[in-house]
Design goal:
By secondary structure, the chain is α+β, with helices and mostly antiparallel strands. It is built from nine helices and twelve strands. Bound molecules: adenosine-3',5'-cyclic-monophosphate.
């Protein structure tokens, strides 16, 4: 991991209309009236991070919420030996940093840029006020948090009850939900994380990841093209292994 490399904050863009258009596309802000939207755009700042930069550190005090304008980040937790597990990968229009803002506790995980990343940052006080003023934002936020809880439940089930094939399949399906794109009816994961990352996510070894992925390829569920993994029939794969 590189040290944080943050460009000084700057307004989202000099063009208010363009900035509002961006914010409007962020699901948690999609229900807001134009006047409220303009307020958010005015109080938020844009920040740029290089690939590999640490954006948030687990255990730090939280003072802001971030929306991803472009790029991808990984949400990770580490142990005392420096081993890390990826909890989720977030991309454009996703948000993070809401947990410590809402409960006032320390950051629950670290957030690291896995590509060049541009963020829109809203200070705690402004975000909390927005939640009080615009109930639709609070409802959208709850919806997203519920979805994250469902995913975490699926991870717990998989790690506790499934065999190696089920655990690896669950990780692949999670990555497909997080960063996959649908092309010609198939789901493609363009930048597959390292085998060690997949192993930590599935609670298994690199050797098992390699063995199980090749078994899935042999059964025609998956295809590997360089660093790109393709799920041939997402629904069928999901129904067979989760
Ligand atoms: P916060 O605890 O403030 O800082 C770390 C952020 O990582 C956290 O808020 C959430 O936004 C995000 N995060 C933590 N756990 C998960 C998860 N399981 N899935 C997606 N995002 C998460």
């Amino acid at each position: 991991m590189n040290l944080p490399s943050v460009a000084p904050g700057q307004p989202l863009t000099s063009d208010l209309g363009e900035a509002m258009e961006f914010i409007r596309n962020v699901p948690i802000f999609s229900e807001i009236e134009a006047s409220e939207l303009a307020k958010i755009v005015r109080v938020g700042v844009r920040k740029k991070y290089k690939k590999g930069s640490i954006i948030l550190l687990e255990e730090e005090t939280g003072a802001a919420l971030f929306v991803i304008i472009s790029g991808k980040v990984k949400i990770v937790r580490t142990d005392d030996d420096g081993r890390e597990v990826i909890l989720s990968i977030l991309g454009e229009n996703d948000f993070f940093g809401e947990m410590s803002i809402l409960d006032g506790l320390a950051r629950s995980a670290s957030v690291v840029a896995i590509t060049k990343t541009e963020l829109f940052m809203i200070h705690r006080r402004d975000f909390l006020k927005l939640l009080q003023d615009v109930p639709a934002v609070a409802v959208s936020l709850l919806k997203e948090l519920t979805m994250r809880l469902r995913k975490a439940d699926a991870q717990i089930k998989s790690l506790s009850l499934k065999d190696a094939a089920g655990r690896v399949a669950n990780v692949i399906l999670q990555l497909a939900d997080d960063i996959g794109t649908i092309r010609k009816g198939r789901v493609e994961i363009d930048e597959l994380p390292l085998q060690q990352d997949l192993a930590n996510m599935a609670g298994t070894s690199r050797e098992t990841i390699s063995r199980v992925v090749h078994m899935f390829i042999k059964k025609n569920h998956l295809e590997l093209q360089g660093n790109k993994l393709i799920i041939n029939d997402y629904e069928k794969f999901k129904s067979l292994y989760t």
